[in-house]
Design a protein that fits this description.
Blueprint lengths: L10 H13 L1 H7 L3 E6 L2 H4 L1 H16 L3 E6 L2 H10 L6 E2 L2 E2 L3 H24 L5 E5 L6 E10 L2 E14 L2 H8 L3 E5 L1 E3 L7 E4 L1 H12 L3 E6 L4 E2 L8 E2 L1 E3 H7 L8 H12 L4 E6 L5 H7 L6 E4 L2
Parallel strand pairs: 1-2, 1-11, 2-8, 5-8, 7-10, 11-15, 14-16
Antiparallel strand pairs: 3-4, 6-7, 9-10, 12-13, 15-16
Helix pairs in contact: 4-6, 5-6, 8-10
């Protein structure tokens, strides 16, 4: 006889838990041994409770046979550190203008603070996560970009796009049974020895395509995509790439990079991409392992 007092176990509660596990069975079969790329950010990154829930979700995926890959940014933490150091920071067209002085802070926060913290939280469930930067082993290659605001092009400094991806460093970690956790910074291909701040949504999409991932999941601070914001009755649960393209000109500026990432992913061969509400505990598991999911799902056609 075990030390557990079985008389204290509610059979109805136990049955409900069993039914939840059974509901996940078709999705466990579908995603077994498949790569799922998760972009981590927003409120889920700054709330201790949500950090812990996210880490548990990612560890759970690994232990049930999914091959998760995490890509993260760190906008709020970068802003706080720049303010603390009295380094000016501004945004143009939704992108942070990143000076030579600021890029050092970006690297420090992403690679030296957020990445090891997240790795440690996942590893509380077992030694399975490992930290990587987009600069490691030629994983990402970047190229500087500007932004057009009201018809005028503006320089963004040390900001770029991911233009090349070598998936081998990630595949090596996955083959070793590990969970890669990747910070969104890339070497500047045109200026060796220099780094670029790259959008984490776009980086996650590019990596998902290069890895042949089955799914891309992007955590946001809203329940999903609204076709007619701020009308909260216009939440879209499912749409095709063509339908998303038609909506893009009407989207709020903050939503455009996330939806563009989903569009790029499915057009690049990823089966499905979804934006989900990172403020909901265990939203990653709800999206992957339930029929209705959570948030907005995009498919190619």
């Amino acid at each position: 006889m075990s030390d557990i007092d079985l008389q204290d176990t509610d059979p109805h509660e136990a049955s409900a838990k069993a039914l939840t596990l059974i509901e996940s069975l078709p999705w466990l079969r579908r995603f077994h041994d498949q790569i799922v790329v998760v972009k981590y950010g927003g409120n889920a990154m700054v709330s201790e409770e949500l950090q812990d829930a996210f880490a548990a979700d990612i560890a759970y995926l690994r232990y049930v046979g999914v091959r998760p890959v995490v890509v993260h940014g760190g906008g709020p933490q970068i802003s706080r550190m720049l303010d603390r150091l009295d380094i000016p920071s501004e945004f143009k067209g939704g992108y942070r203008v990143t000076s030579t002085e600021a890029i050092s802070v970006v690297r420090m926060v992403l690679t030296g603070q957020i990445n090891p913290q997240l790795v440690a939280k996942i590893n509380a469930y077992g030694p399975v996560a490992t930290g990587l930067s987009g600069e490691d082993a030629g994983l990402f290659g970047g190229r500087r970009r500007g932004v057009i605001v009201e018809g005028v092009e503006h320089d963004l400094g040390r900001v770029g796009d991911v233009v090349t991806v070598d998936p081998q460093p990630i595949l090596d970690q996955l083959d070793a049974g590990r969970i890669p956790v990747v910070s969104s910074i890339a070497p500047d291909l045109d200026n060796p020895g220099h780094s670029l701040n790259v959008n984490a949504d776009a980086a996650a999409a590019a990596l998902a395509v290069a890895l042949g991932a089955t799914k891309l999941v992007v955590l946001t601070d809203v329940p999903g995509l609204y076709a007619d914001w701020p009308n909260r009755d216009s939440l879209v649960s499912h749409l095709t790439a063509d339908e998303l393209r038609a909506l893009m000109p009407r989207l709020e500026s903050g939503m455009i990079p996330k939806m563009q990432a989903c569009l790029d992913a499915v057009c690049g061969g990823v089966e499905t991409a979804a934006i989900i509400d990172g403020r909901v505990p265990h939203s990653v598991l709800v999206e992957i392992f339930t029929q209705k999911g959570i948030g907005t799902e995009v498919v190619a056609a």
